[in-house]
Write a structure and sequence with these properties.
- The structure is a single chain.
- The protein is an alpha+beta fold.
- The protein has 6 helices and 9 strands.
- The longest helix has 33 residues.
């Protein structure tokens, strides 16, 4: 039976069998010539099956290509750009974009080599770190016209002796201004920042090193912080050029709140940054706050 026409084929035209059919070798024909190897023509059913197989093969290739490109996109994109794959918050606060205040015409920055005194010529009040999003600002720290009396700054220290001693040192070093800002976050974390400006970087650094920094065993105790120790978990890569820094954390067991504190010295300014929170002051927002304040002063 002819596979295409359905007619019976003559016996002499029967397809080769055996090894010749399997190997596809050439077979002789009546005129003595050699006919090319032949294969059975596909039936309609065979062609339909072949077409279906080709379509599925093409579809599989398309899906493979799309899958590969999608996988590439996932590896290249930030997780926060992908719905459902946003990285969980690491505790950082949402601060506004920071901009240093403009310098008076012709005045250098505090780290400029031409600025021998290391003076901050920009308005000190504009160098205090702004509060992050969601914060409730403490209006009491604004002072009069943005300047805080020295006695209000000294009130952060727990011991009367420390307040009197440090007050005398501030006067001896020629304290010029105190600018401050404070706020409380929804989780109860209280932040206080104080900037103290002196006549030169030399004077400011002397106060920092001899009264407040890591060169002493323990800084003057803050209210609510019975015992503070060096913060050994501070990441070294968070250093700010041109800044001296000493960091302390209230050691366990602490009371209802834990207090973290940092003293910074940059040019003619000494800064105190504190954070306290019931149950424990978190490291990440404290580190973030200290670094950003240091960058504003640098």
């Amino acid at each position: 039976m002819d596979a295409v026409t359905g007619r019976e084929a003559p016996a002499e035209e029967a397809s080769p069998t055996g090894q010749a059919a399997v190997a596809g070798r050439e077979t002789p024909v009546e005129d003595g010539s050699v006919a090319p190897p032949t294969s059975p023509a596909p039936t309609r059913k065979d062609r339909r099956a072949l077409w279906t197989a080709l379509r599925w093969t093409a579809a599989a290739l398309v899906f493979a290509a799309v899958g590969a490109s999608t996988a590439y996109g996932l590896t290249r994109a930030e997780r926060t750009d992908l719905p459902g794959l946003a990285t969980a918050s690491d505790g950082r606060w949402d601060y506004p974009e920071l901009t240093r205040p403009p310098l008076p015409s012709g005045r250098p920055g505090p780290l400029d080599t031409a600025n021998k005194a290391g003076s901050h010529y920009a308005d000190l009040r504009a160098l205090v770190l702004p509060a992050p999003k969601g914060a409730r600002v403490d209006t009491a720290l604004r002072g009069k016209d943005g300047w805080l009396p020295a006695k209000d700054f000294l009130s952060v220290y727990a011991e009367k002796e420390d307040r009197e001693d440090l007050g005398a040192k501030l006067a001896d070093h020629g304290l010029r201004h105190v600018a401050a800002r404070g706020w409380t976050m929804p989780d109860g974390t209280r932040t206080r920042i104080y900037l103290l400006q002196f006549g030169s970087a030399t004077v400011a650094e002397d106060l920092y090193r001899n009264e407040l920094s890591h060169t002493i065993d323990e800084p003057p105790a803050l209210r609510g912080a019975a015992l503070s120790v060096f913060d050994e978990d501070w990441p070294e890569q968070a250093a700010v050029p041109g800044e001296n820094r000493s960091l302390y954390v209230e050691s366990e067991p602490y009371g209802a709140e834990q207090v973290r504190q940092a003293y910074l010295s940059a040019g003619d300014v000494v800064a105190l940054v504190t954070q306290s929170r019931k149950g424990g002051a978190k490291a990440v927002p404290f580190q973030q706050t200290v670094v950003l304040q240091g960058e504003l002063l640098g």
